[in-house]
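Q: Joint fold for the lines below.
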Amino acid sequence: GAVVSQHPSRVICKSGTSVKIECRSLDFQATTMFWYRQFPKQSLMLMATSNEGSKATYEQGVEKDKFLINHASLTLSTLTVTSAHPEDSSFYICSARAQGHPNTEAFFGQGTRLTVV
Amino acid sequence: AQSVTQLDSQVPVFEEAPVELRCNYSSSVSVYLFWYVQYPNQGLQLLLKYLSGSTLVKGINGFEAEFNKSQTSFHLRKPSVHISDTAEYFCAVMMPRETSGSRLTFGEGTQLTVNP
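A: Joint structure:
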């Protein structure tokens, strides 16, 4: 089956620093990738949708300059949390839609636990 | 816009008992429906999905769900649960004509806890 890998799985950073999270499709080409944020005991909230080679589309209320998304290739998307603060601590999950697969298929990464201290 | 409501935030059951996790949705157009499972500190795994056709959908790990258009529901069931089924379960919808593709709207989740 299609595999999506996120790295790192856990990261702790100091307030004011930036953190980059990678999302890779290991055995397929991902034309579209999605970034979600999940607070403890809550659901997934879509942050942005990115298509390879174009700018990401952000959901209302998501700061574009704070959460930088790059989808430079068909197998890699990155989310950079800039100038992180404790309130950015959360579980971030990516998912990817495979080129050639039905658009009902979304494969999820294992998530990244970000803690800002 | 579509929305998803999972009626129970927590469902405790004993091992080998049957379980039903309830999901209702709201949409002005036809939607695709999904159930995902999330184990602690992990991503989501697809259990099953309804796109069209038979309203009873069978998924992995012995789960099944029934699409009921008149009641706008898509409840998840398993006749006999195991300890290993303890996890968070999410119901989700997708609009077939969604131009951004595979954009899912999730419910709030139901924590299933299977006790020995």
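Q: Anything notable?
A: The two ends of chain A are 37 Å apart (CA to CA). The mean pLDDT of chain A is 91.
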